[in-house]
Amino acid sequence: MIWPGNSEKRPVPAVILTIDLEDPTGVYAPSGRYVQMTERLLSMFDETQRRATFFVTGQAAAAAPEMIRKIAALRHEIAWHTRNHVPLTLETPQRFRQESRVDKDMLEQLCGQEVAGFRAPCFSLTPKTMWAVDVLGETGFRYSSSIMPTCFSLFGFPRAPSMPFLWPNGLAEFPLPVAGAGFLRIPYLGGVYLYSMPFFLVTRWLKKAASNECLWTYAHPFDFDAGAPFERFPGVPLWIGLAMWMLRSKAESKIRRLCAFGGAGTLKDFLDSGKIVKRFDCN
After folding, report:
1. Which domains are delineated in the chain?
2. What is the torsion angle, in degrees rounded to the nearest 10, for the CA atoms of residue 165, residue 167, residue 169 and residue 173?
3. Given CB 3.0 to 4.6 Å as the disulfide criterion, which of 50, 99, 224, 245 pairs with 83?
4. For the segment 222-246, what is each residue's pLDDT rounded down to a tens digit?
């Protein structure tokens, strides 16, 4: 018998895979290492029979359009990750509005499908950058995946819900999954948080997740480039860059273990399921 509140015997829920496709060097060579590592990810997803949501920068799409076409042809979702991977705190509403329109059209022309989603670099959608929500709605985006509902980050938004919700203009938001409560919320399903976390904790927290939670992980192509020498990336503090580089050897095994829990579709699939009803206004 499984007692109420006992998560140990619950099945581990499937996790949506999301990839932030950018070139951290800022070079965007058409055949750069970010392209090679994306090919490696596509092979892994084909092997594990998993689909993913790829948040693509405008620069990556312009530099390697055939890569975007291939990702879409393999039935993965294409979403937007800004033009130059600039945090919203360094953007202006005018520039963001113009670039969102141009890049959304470019991505839709390349992939032949609706580009419904957006992710802010560094999860930089915060109370100070709320203007972006209205711009995204005006531009035709239907969801965002741009909030870290915790105080663990420079761009944390601890007052935001941890469950999927709707902004006042109807834009859906999929917050970064966290475990715990209040200011003790811990990101555990993506990036350096996932790679450094003991996997038994990840499994335990997944089993305790609410049934209406949108569970997704995030990774970058360069996370899987374990053979690359250390390199300082523009705008990334040295200690963060070192941590990301040293944890690359953990990335593939952790993502493969999440893949083993089963398929979960894409973020757009979750959006189209109609499960999001709660609204949130940070004012």
Report:
1. 16-272 (3.20.20.370)
2. -60
3. 99
4. 999 988 888 877 777 777 778 777 8
